[in-house]
């Protein structure tokens, strides 16, 4: 076959040159830029651009405080000769780096970076490409700017420390980048199995809620000016402090402090230890990438148990029982809706963000319930505000209803299944979660603060129905017009598009404003009971709107089937 074998006497292929490597990296950089640029030319790209423009100042405002804090803190500690406190700066930047990685999703690519393996690419160049892709993520940018601010603060306070501090913080930044890459890749490796994914979900939920509990009960800012000291925490801190000094943040601070105290041998030893940690992180990351380079598949499909064969006799009996069950009563659910509900319950168990969005608001209300009851602030608005706060975590996930289905969405179009039934099952799970949160928040406030009055409870329930139906209708439309694939084996991935998240927040806030205006209007008339019929009328109108949207979903999905398949079935 032509081109597959060289003719006799043909010279061997010339060795790979550095110019060819630079051309490959330039092509990858150009590809990344073209993906970013062309993403705004697609349908809905203008809305995503507007969403990013709106979100960027908010993120910048949030990030500017730790960046300035690192700079001023480093200046204060060095200028006042409290060099031992520099470890709090390095540890703070390290924890900030990991916190941003977990909470701010990097922009998704329109292709899988692993596809470059198909091209003539050696492993060192593949590893370099993987390192550079995503280098400008929010975590790297914010963490690096914080270290630059700390370096500037140290230089202003003591210019003689600038060379040592700059070199140390540069190595520390590389170690942080390698550590986050290593941690993400290995966590994704563990999440490739469903059992590990469920265990990781439980750890994330309990760890995050435990941190909120410790922060609320032991942070002096929440103690009304009285610092609550715990001997157990102090003892744990004293035990962990020697170990913390041997980790990268502690070594970075030790290197700078030793240089300031003219202990150059200790400074060099700490810097070498920091560089060693960075090399270890890079080596572990490279090992993981080498396994993927050799073709390892992390899909959960590859970990499926072997299918069991059903004897023909059981198939016939099962078919007869299914035929007998097809004659259902008037109040029973259809087989399609029952199957979709079962599927959504499985999705709920495996979706970390959805479970956290359901549990965290109730837990936070529980933590603040005693304080609310003791302070006596808020009055009758505590219960409606808590219910509105709980909706923020659940409602946003209805704006990407097909994200969990992924490539399986194509079976909806080739099977006798109505998209209406699929979304009805998804919405019923969301409505059920909202109702459970309503009941739990009522119980928490009744136990820890004060029991909401029957008038407030019924009016809040009517408002909840109004908001839930409105949010469900708009969320269904956005799920079909702007779907986003959700891969549970990948961490740090947004559950919805940025524009959908802004719309979800805007809908909840608008509904809350309508409810609050209704309360003020009824109080102005001196007839608080009018809240119930007014909000109930809003709920009935929202239900009619929701049903009309639900009945049109089949036609809308048919018109958007190509865009849905392109987004959810891509690899």
TrEMBL record:
Biased composition, class Polar residues, residue ranges: 314-327
Region feature (Disordered): 304-327
TM spans (from-to): 49-77, 89-111, 131-154, 160-184, 196-214, 267-287, 355-374, 380-402, 423-449, 455-477, 498-521, 527-547
Keywords: Membrane, Transmembrane, Transmembrane helix
Entry annotated with the keyword Transmembrane: yes
Protein name: ABC-2 type transport system permease protein
Species this protein is from: Tunturiibacter gelidiferens
Organism lineage string: Bacteria, Pseudomonadati, Acidobacteriota, Terriglobia, Terriglobales
């Amino acid at each position: 076959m032509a081109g597959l074998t060289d003719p006799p006497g043909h010279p061997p292929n010339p060795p790979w040159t550095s110019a060819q490597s630079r051309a490959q990296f330039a092509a990858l950089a150009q590809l990344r830029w073209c993906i970013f640029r062309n993403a705004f030319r697609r349908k809905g790209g203008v809305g995503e651009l507007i969403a990013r423009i709106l979100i960027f100042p908010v993120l910048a405002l949030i990030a500017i405080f730790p960046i300035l804090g690192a700079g001023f803190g480093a200046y204060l500690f060095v200028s006042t000769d409290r060099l031992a406190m520099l470890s709090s700066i390095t540890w703070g930047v390290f924890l900030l780096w990991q916190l941003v990685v977990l909470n701010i999703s990097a922009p998704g690519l329109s292709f899988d970076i692993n596809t470059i393996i198909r091209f003539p690419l050696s492993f060192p160049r593949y590893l370099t490409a993987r390192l550079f892709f995503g280098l400008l993520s929010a975590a790297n940018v914010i963490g690096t700017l914080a270290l630059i601010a700390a370096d500037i603060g140290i230089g202003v306070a003591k210019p003689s420390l600038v060379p040592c501090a700059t070199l140390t913080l540069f190595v520390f930044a590389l170690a942080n980048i390698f550590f986050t890459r290593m941690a993400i890749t290995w966590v994704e490796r563990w999440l490739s199995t469903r059992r590990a994914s469920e265990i990781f979900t439980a750890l994330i939920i309990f760890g995050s809620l435990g941190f909120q509990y410790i922060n609320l009960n032991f942070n002096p800012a929440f103690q009304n000016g009285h610092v609550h000291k715990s001997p157990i925490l102090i003892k744990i801190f004293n035990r962990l402090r020697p170990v913390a000094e041997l980790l990268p943040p502690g070594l970075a601070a030790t290197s700078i402090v030793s240089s300031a105290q003219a202990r150059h041998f200790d400074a060099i030893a700490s810097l070498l230890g920091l560089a060693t940690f960075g090399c270890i992180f890079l080596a572990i990351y490279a090992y993981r990438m080498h396994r993927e380079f050799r073709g390892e598949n992390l899909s959960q499909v590859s970990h499926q148990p072997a299918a069991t064969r059903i004897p023909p006799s059981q198939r016939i009996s099962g078919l007869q029982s299914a035929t007998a069950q097809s004659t259902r009563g008037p109040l029973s659910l259809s087989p399609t809706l029952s199957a979709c509900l079962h599927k959504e319950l499985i999705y709920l168990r495996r979706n970390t963000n959805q479970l956290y969005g359901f549990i965290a608001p109730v837990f936070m209300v529980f933590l603040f319930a005693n304080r609310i009851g003791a302070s006596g602030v808020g009055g009758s608005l505590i219960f409606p505000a808590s219910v509105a706060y709980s909706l923020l975590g659940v409602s946003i996930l209805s704006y990407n209803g097909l994200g969990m289905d992924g490539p399986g969405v194509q079976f909806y179009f080739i099977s006798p299944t109505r998209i209406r039934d699929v979304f009805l099952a998804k919405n019923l799970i969301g409505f059920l979660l909202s109702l459970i949160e309503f009941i739990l928040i009522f119980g928490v406030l009744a136990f820890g603060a004060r029991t909401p009055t029957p008038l407030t409870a019924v009016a809040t329930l009517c408002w909840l129905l109004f908001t839930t139906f409105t949010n469900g209708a708009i969320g269904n439309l956005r799920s079909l017009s702007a779907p986003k694939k959700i891969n549970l084996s990948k961490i740090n991935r947004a559950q919805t598009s940025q524009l959908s998240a802004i719309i979800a927040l805007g809908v909840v806030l608008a509904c809350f404003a309508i409810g609050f205006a209704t309360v003020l209007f009824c109080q102005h008339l001196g007839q608080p009971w009018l809240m119930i019929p007014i909000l109930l009328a809003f709920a009935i109108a929202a239900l009619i709107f929701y049903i009309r949207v639900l009945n049109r979903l089949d036609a809308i999905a048919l018109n958007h089937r190509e865009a849905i398949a392109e987004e959810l079935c891509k690899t």
